[in-house]
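Dock flavin-adenine dinucleotide; give full complex structure.
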Amino acid sequence: MKEYDVIVVGSGAGGSTVARELTRKGKKVLLLERGGRVNMMGNTLTMALILKYFGLTRSVEKNTVVFADNYGGLSNLTAGCAACPPKIVFDPVGIDLSEEAEEARQEMHVQQLPDNLVGKSNIRLLEAAHDAGFAWDKMENFIDPEKCIEDCGQCMLGCRTGAKWTARVFGDEAVANGAELKLHTRVNEVITENGKAVGVIASRFGKKTRYHARSVVLSAGTGNVGILRNAGIKEAGQGFCCDWLQFAGGIIPDINSVKANPMSVGTLAHYESDGLVVLPVFPNWSQFAVLLGMTGMKNLAVFPDFWKYTGLMVKIRDDSAGEIYSDTSFSKPVTKTDQKKLDKGVGIIKKVLKRAGAADDSFIALKPSGAHPSATCRINDVVDQNLETRISNLYCCDSSVFPSSLGLPVVWTAVSLGKRLANYMDGRLR
Ligand SMILES: Cc1cc2nc3c(=O)[nH]c(=O)nc-3n(C[C@H](O)[C@H](O)[C@H](O)COP(=O)(O)OP(=O)(O)OC[C@H]3O[C@@H](n4cnc5c(N)ncnc54)[C@H](O)[C@@H]3O)c2cc1C
């Protein structure tokens, strides 16, 4: 029977980083991913793939949250916007990710884009925000400007040029360094012996297989919950965050969001004080139609104007609330505090749009949705500061371990946590 040093379950930003770092340290790694390698096409046809491989799932309260089922996880869908791991979230649990974040900055091409790639619409919004008295700046991105193209703006439908960093970059590097990658392989159970994790049971096309290793890292996002509950860790998935976001838009003469580079400008100035950020980004026309319909069928009359709209998003640090159930259904209410933060953000957006020339009667706000399922296996609740569960040699490493809502782009933080865990495990495995 083949034995690995480490089995990593899930190939998103957290899992691919752990796998890559450990192979760089000479470890024998097996990376198991339930999805396949479905490539996104960078156009509207991709929406069909998104609905199939990144379920826009609805909570019992009928709020939508996105989950991944694909090699590279949710990183395939990002706008490429980079936010450094926030101290406000990690200081309370005694974790400093600054060294790991700095290392990741170099490897992921984190930088501001030049004005020609930021584009005319975003520059106009930046100027309007300044005129309205808000502290806006260019955002950092994990996008290689050498490969990025002007007036594309399709990052969230799949980057056609490979300019945007995704977890597949690190996953493929792990494989080149000797890791074994098994796609279409869903892990259901952890094998334990004398209170220690020694492997996993996974199913692939209906066939169950046991894989053995000295340590197991669960990086399956919300998928961690079912696996941990099967292992007796019932508190996993009780309360979670998704960084509720709300899109709002208006019609400004001469500009629109259709080809604007998403989230390449914006503001983090309200983050620490109000728990919210405001960034220009708007859904694709087909997502817009769905989200518009959810605000009431009569509002679909606005749809033909989609190509005239300029849109922005407020994203908040939401309350930990609801639950992921063992059958993967979930509850996730928008709490009163969440709603207050969203309303405040929508108010800021309205001021910026108005300053940029939008008429009041063109203003629309869509329903809140969640794109960052996280904090299901929180540090100090489900894992300790080394990300180990109470089952020895069983770790979690991805956005599920966040101690509270990030309310910011997630990827840079998940990568930093992956680097930190790999360093710790390297010491333990020696
Ligand atoms: C539209 C959109 C735009 C976004 N834009 C940005 C952005 O600009 N910047 C940013 O930083 N973040 C962005 N995010 C958020 C970010 O993409 C995710 O929060 C982050 O990638 C999550 O990484 P993760 O490693 O925690 O988990 P995931 O990406 O969820 O990875 C989990 C992996 O585990 C696999 N898996 C699950 N269960 C099992 C199982 N039982 N067995 C085996 N495999 C399993 C899944 O298929 C998946 O590949 C965006 C998200 C969305 C939806």
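Observed: Residues 9-15, 32-35, 66, 68-70, 73-75, 77-81, 156, 186-187, 219-221, 223, 263, 371-372, 398-399, 409-412, 414 surround flavin-adenine dinucleotide (CB under 6 Å).
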